[in-house]
């Protein structure tokens, strides 16, 4: 089943990318500059942006702030991308903003949704906005907000056709968002070998703002001059600790910028309340317990493989991806840590060809859609490779399973 989109978005191709911001800025000026209504925090990076944004937004909301959260892409409904206080806006509200933006057919799909998000945040009079960059940092539509704080999760090798053929060039693209923000924070996932490439003299590391360490396999310890506590991480996977650390550091930066006064009990409430499905989360899909992970590039596959290697029992793999992913390298990482494999195409014009999927996973069962692929595998099952795949399965999920 394809992802349902409002009629006013259907003619704006999601894959269209424009390497300039002048048109969007001009449109927003005509709309009264809604992007300037509230201060914002921008999160850029290859992986972990959405998890970091969700953690930070929930943390800020727990302090009584009216929060706006803009993320991409969505899993099931496009309204998921625009949230007020953690709740997606209604279809009716989104349609009202999109109707207003129909006056500007020159906007791309992502520019349109970004503009709609800023209009929604102004309408709800939010106190602070948390933005997840779509891709890169130089030309991403979220940059028009002129965020006062920017954070970088990590730099991988995704989207080389647009951002550059090396990690250094990709880092330089993302670094433009940090250079433009008065407060820049580097997450623990930012490797030492690209620090010089970033050329952001005023950037500080997450460790300089707050300390986070593992107590055991589930609990972490947080230390700051203002607070100190231990708690269980709301997300599964060691790689998520880096996102948690950056979210906490960005919260401290927000306090330093005068956006919030942090309280340890509110921090705990916010972190423990964070929900971000499809990131190593278990769900009941048509009566089956399935581990869903939206990892969709080489670095994410490496994190998942590391996590699965520690499992007591090898899971069976349901895999699909889009056609710009290094599927062969991803398969090399995943195949040694799984048992049986099933592959399928996605309901997306950019789906990876079945010929290439079969070549990367030569022993895999082949299905024509995700649900049929799931039926081919015994329990336990992990599904990964694309947010489109996770979204297709989540449409048939009853509820999230709390146990990890």
Task: Quickly describe the structure.
This protein is 35% helix and 18% strand. With 404 residues, the protein is of the alpha/beta class. The chain has an eight-stranded mixed sheet with strand order 4-3-2-5-1-6-7-8, with helices on both faces. Strands 16-15-14-17-13-12-18 form a seven-stranded mixed sheet, with helices on both faces.
Characterize the structure shown.
This protein is an alpha/beta fold. Helix content is 35%, strand content 18%. The chain folds into 2 domains: 266 residues, 3-Layer(aba) Sandwich (UDP-N-acetylmuramoyl-L-alanine:D-glutamate ligase), CATH 3.40.1190.10; 122 residues, Alpha-Beta Complex (Protein-Tyrosine Phosphatase, Chain A), CATH 3.90.190.20. The protein contains 15 helices and 18 strands. It has an 8-stranded mixed β-sheet with strand order 4-3-2-5-1-6-7-8, sandwiched between helices. The protein has a 7-stranded mixed β-sheet with strand order 16-15-14-17-13-12-18, with helices on both faces. Strands 9-10-11 form a 3-stranded antiparallel β-sheet. Helix 3 packs across helix 4, helix 11 runs parallel beside helix 12 and helix 12 packs parallel to helix 13.
